[in-house]
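Anyone else keep sequences and structure tokens together like this?

Example one:
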Amino acid sequence: MSIKASRYQGVRKKSAVREWVESLIIAFILALFIRQFIIQAFKIPTGSMRTTLLEGDRILVNKFIYGAKIPFTDLSLPALRKPKRGEVIVFIYPQDPKKDFIKRLIALPGETVEIKNGSIYINGVPNKEPLVSNRYYYNRPESEYGQEGQAIKVLEDSYYVLGDNSSSSQDSRYWGFVPKKNVLGKAMLIYWPINRMRIIK
């Protein structure tokens, strides 16, 4: 084998390795972009959303629908639309920014919400939307956000959220409202385990 041919093969081998490394870097950057701005996977740690979500369920969360956050800033991308009542949302826990919570959105900014006889009242009227009205909600006498006979006005740019498993959920009844800036996205799909794969409603 000539020296010229050997050098050519060496260059070709280095070129193949370089292409492989570049492909890995591009794939890594693309994965980070998708996770930050489009879709992120989460694992359900507790039973606060039973029976909609069970402990160990792995879900995909749509982050661009409400406007994904731009890292290291207070800015967000333009939203496709605002969160709607009854949707299951993932958000940064207001009392600990290192934790992400998942709950059902019950009341919107500026609305008055009350839990009475297990039902949700919005602006003094019983809520009839199936995603909200088909479960029982408990009052929390020890909390300023969930007492019986107490109508609470949701702050502007904030939301009132509750767990579907009302008897075992740390939610707005305990710690108040979720600021709009804390909302990460809409829970979209259970993808694991396979036998629980479904659209989240």
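And example two:
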Amino acid sequence: MIHVFVRRSTDVDYLTQDRGDEIAGLRRGEAGWWLRGTGDAESSADVATVLQTTARASVVGYDVVVAAPRPLSILVAIDEACAPGVVAAHRAGVLAAIDYLEDRALVVRQRADGGEYLRAASWSRVVGYTHGINRSGEPHLHDHVLIGARPLHESTVADSRSLFAHLPAADAIYRSTLRFEVNQHTSARVWRSFAGVEVVTGLDEGYRALWGGHADERGPKTAWTRDEAVARWRADRHRFEPMSMPAEPPRREFDAHGYAAAFEGASRITRRDLVKAYADASTFGAEAPAVHAAIDELHPHLRVARGVDERPLRLVQARRLAPELSQELARGARDVVIDDRYLERAGVSRLRESRNRSEW
């Protein structure tokens, strides 16, 4: 899940001094990595330059915390073979989520001729820190991503309302990318249930009980070595009690009913809602370009939609996927399997763009 914390200080020692050694060797390089810009990600002076603002604003930037679903964090702790692939998939998802926020949520407001206009902006520097443990010593794969309040070459800060409005869609993009990458590059099988839960096939629910991720009190910040973390997780597993195995994954690659149900009761549906619904409905995940291509193919007039005041759709428009699929839904089909051939017949293309993975 993605959470955002407002930063009013340029003190970044909290992040630069945490080497994230608990997953050293599972990720490429150190904990710090540049999503935009260059420099020493372990240098507080370099990292602090990310947090740009104006003389009139008190907010210098935001700490975007992107956390993997608990079963994926658990997989890092119990499966040494899959762990590096899961961490790489997590970083790919983080990058996709930040790309989405920059493309659709990063705007500045400009007043001219008695009106107010939105203008797209971009970040000059963005840095992330990948960690694998929480304060209780439980497996917790997550990134802290620092972004500045003032975009590149702008004299005003970005519209924070837009950033927060697009977080659910960015989180769905992250999770969809994570599922896709894990399924493509590891032996694990990850899928999303109709109830919105990420499931790892074969992972006993007892592990969720063992590492629930909740503590009565937040302990002090502690730096763990890789050996300490592994020893802690190994000791914890002695208390593991089997509960139940998750159900087998569904046959469908796309949950059409889940997509339609995402808009139930909604009075105002925008492109960001479509993106979230489509990404969530991709049972085994989808690359971000494929999600955006599908939505833009279905609703081309929304291709330039961004900011908090996106043009809304009516419910009947939002639920439309493609003519053939609409007929299936009207008949109450329980399992609609969407593959690439189906999408081609329906006029929806699954486009995949090459991505530079050097920063993984």
